[in-house]
Amino acid sequence: MKNNGFMKYLFIGIILAVVLNFVTLPYYVTRPGDAQELRPLVNVEGGFQDEGRFLLTTVKMGKANVFTYSLAKLSDYQNIFPINQIRNENETDEEYSYRQLHMMESSKETAIKVAYEKAGKPVELLSRGVYVFSVKEGLAADGKLIIGDRITQIDGVKTTTAEKLMDIINSKNIGDEIDISYDRDDKEESVKITLGEHPEDPNKAGIGISLLTDYDIQMDPPITINTAQIGGPSAGLMFSLEIYNQLVEEDVAKGYQIAGTGAINENGEVLRIGGIAQKIVAADNAGVDIFFAPNEKGSENSNYQEALIAAEDIKTKMKVIPIDTFDDAIDYLEKLQPKSK
Questions:
Q1: Is 139 exposed, middle or buried (0-12, 13-18, 19+ CB in 10 A)?
Q2: At 70, is the pLDDT very low, low, confident or very high (cuts 50, 70, 90)?
Q3: pLDDT in tens, 226-235
Q4: CA 260 vs CA 17, 50, 79, 281: distances in Å
Q5: Beta strand extents in 164-294 (DSSP E only)
Q6: What pLDDT sits at residue 280?
Q7: CA distance 338 to 89
Q8: Which of 108, 272, 290, 310 has its CA 20 to 30 A from that of 326?
Q9: Of 173, 105, 169, which is closest to residue 133 (Cα–Cα)?
């Protein structure tokens, strides 16, 4: 009888564990991901192949359940975020994935431009307008624009970049009406929108959308980059370095395993990203020699400073190098002695 009772409670416990595993909480959990070699993902036609390796680092993220939430509470390198800190308000999982993948596409295009220009190769980045990445409920654009619309003009003025579009909005007043031309499902459309208050500044006009510039890039030699389901802009610096390494004859990495992180803009500036401590762990686990971290011009709480703390905590032998620009990374590598065999 006692054995039957034990089996009964064991069965109930197993069922409860299975149920709790599928019940998600209103949080995301992030943890160290992988350090992935970029050479298999990047192919410059006729490009050079060298001994050194550039790697991108990732952070794994998933919706929390009781078990993953509890484990994250006990871990130094797992973080818990409320859903509204990861996804925009009322944004679905599909919309979030769409936004992340388009940010990666934009990051790749910028990385190509920076690397080709540095290598002295022909490249041209052409803007095709600005993508709508989110629409805030209750604000001016709600019900008029949707995620994926590509805005091409405001009041007849071309919006070639997200910055140009916001400059136009910032020149307007609350209550002004603007005429927006946009592409949706390959059809040209237009809509009039009355500007309301900016969600973060009630004295400033706002439209209630987030944006990303849609680029078309032309280069020689041709290049293919396969990022599959990698999302977000944080691999920009490392893509630039891998592309540049294939464009020039010398082994830029000089035989080292080099990882890093940081978004990159058209001017080659390396920008702050999230999850750098977890990326330090991922790089260390992969046996990386050198890690490039955004320095943010020496800011007290820069990614670089966060990376140093994590590196010291896990007692890694990996060198962590502060980087403000793509040129900083190249300058460091040019002065680096080749790795002894």
A1: middle
A2: confident
A3: 877 677 788 8
A4: 38, 19, 20, 12
A5: 177-184, 187-194, 196-198, 201-206, 209-219, 223-225, 257-260, 263-264, 270-271, 290-294
A6: 97
A7: 49
A8: 310
A9: 105
Would you state the pLDDT for residue 64? 85
Q: Compute the distance between CA of residue 140 and CA of residue 65 in angstroms, rounded to an integer.
A: 36
The predicted structure's pLDDT at residue 84: 79
* 198-230 b/e (C-beta count within 10 Å ≥ 16 → b): beeeeeebbbbbebbbbbebebeeebebebeeb
What domains does the chain contain, in order, with CATH numbers?
A: 32-59+97-122+220-335 (3.30.230.10), 125-215 (2.30.42.10)
Residue in the structure block whose two tokens are 């003025």: 157
Rounded to an integer, the average pLDDT of 242-270 is: 94
List, for residues 260-308, the tens digit of each pLDDT value. 999 998 889 999 998 999 999 999 999 999 999 999 999 888 999 999 9
CB 325 within 8 A of CB 270: yes
pTM: 0.79
Residues annotated as catalytic are: 234, 279
pLDDT at residue 186 in the model: 86
What is the rounded distance in angstroms from the CA atom of residue 212 to the CA atom of residue 127?
11
The one-letter code for the residue type at 63 is K
Please give the torsion angle defined by the CA atoms of residues 255, 259, 263 and 266, in that order, rounded to the nearest 10 degrees.
0
- What is the end-to-end Cα distance of the chain in Å, rounded? 68
Strand partners, 43: 224
